[in-house]
Amino acid sequence: MTELASVPELDRATVADATAALRPCCAAVRWVSQLVAGRPYRTLDTLVAASDAAISALTWPDIEEALAAHPRIGGRPAGPDREAAWSRQEQAGTSAAGPGAQAALRSANAGYEERFGHVFLICATGLRASDMLIALDERMGHDPATEHETVRAELGKIAALRLAKAFSPPEAP
Prior knowledge:
Radius of gyration: 17 Å
Helix content: 55-70%
Structural class: mainly alpha
Number of helices: 10
Distance between the termini: 27 Å
């Protein structure tokens, strides 16, 4: 696969290359398919708007498919692929946390997963471990329907950030 670095390159790419470029941004097959089929976008803003619309139309099983590609908060995904690298970068706030905060994250994640049946998803970029623990605690009070919509919103934020990372032109020196 050729690395696609801009929205115009995504617009011109083969279906296979566009699919491969989009999948690390959101692993839901329906989301990827909708974005590939909706080309051309021409600009990042238009692509992100299409992503938002596609995420709002996902069923819960589609969202669960996307969740399966996300590591636990505090988990450090290994591997050289783009998605693992982005996850490590996005969760940088947890790597600076001390052993107590790391243990608290593991415990809170386990409780969340037991309650809701899936990983805790939060757009972790720029958040400290303490911020994520507060959010985990608050979201434990949600009913399942409210939490599903919260997860959908967080997935949309993550997808938008990843689209910007993938398709923004490099900054001039």
